[in-house]
Amino acid sequence: MTPEPAAASSAPPAPSLAHLPVGVFAVVMGIGGTAVAWFRADEAFGLALPVNDALAWLGLAVLAAAVAAYGAKVARHPRAAVAEWTHPVKAAFVATIPVSMMVLATAFLPISETASAALWWPGAVLQFVVTVLVMRTWIADARVQAIHVHPAWFIPVVGNLVAPLAGVTHAPGEVSWYFFGVGAVFWVGLLPVVLSRLFVEGVMPWRLAPTLAILVAPPAVASLSWVRLGGSWEDPLAMMLLGVVIFQLALLAAQSAYLRKVPFAVSAWAYTFPLAAAASALLAAYESGATAFAAWVGVAALAAGTLLVLGLGWRTAVAVSRGELLAAEG
Questions:
Q1: Domains of the chain (ranges plus CATH)?
Q2: What's its membrane topology (predicted)?
């Protein structure tokens, strides 16, 4: 008998819907967040560009496609979905589902409050559930170790800070304050855990390297929510948070030479929402009287985020056509 070639036994598994990552909803976060940032640019500079509307509707279409595709995964491969939801590393990305809905709800506020509410309410309820379940996994799962921590752990927590952006319009005030309190307290509590992982546990795996950009998002979204809840951009808290945003942008830029070498993965969309959130905060602060420096940095963040959305959108479309999103992780 002639033995089978060794290569045959090591062939990669065929693409399967079971391998579709839940992090695909980060695409919606990036598109929706960039839509909001363009609306803030319109407000800050007195423009009337249709970019917010176009991106908001595009984000809604992508959300519908992602819900259909991931829903099919849950229906056909429930074990694979449950394994992803309870995985020490992947569980945090489950929160991209409700956060994407609430980000789009914010983008739709200037377009249609009805559409915004239809996105926000299920997103907020799901955010509450996901936050509880993911944090339970972190606490109760013996598999979770320091090496499993990564910046995307902020998503389930900081997603609560996104809720007040549209929630102030759609829900009683105490609901938005609930989400803001949970997001702010647990972001501050989780920050030293994530920094400890980055400082002492070695370099991030390449698939997770883009999540370093997520460090920009919490202070940016927190400042936006603080002002939506009645604060002012002149408040010491808002000014402090904006300072942290600028520092995190500088730190991200300092790592750009390394990050440019990272191969493409869906996780690359992690760059887009943080840049959009930073742009929104800085441009909103400029509109309220902050110095031109905030405008310059905000415009730079918006330009970088928009270019990334365009580039990653094209690369993701190519990945979809090639079946790369349905390939097992190496």
A1: 19-325 (1.50.10.150)
A2: Multi-pass membrane protein
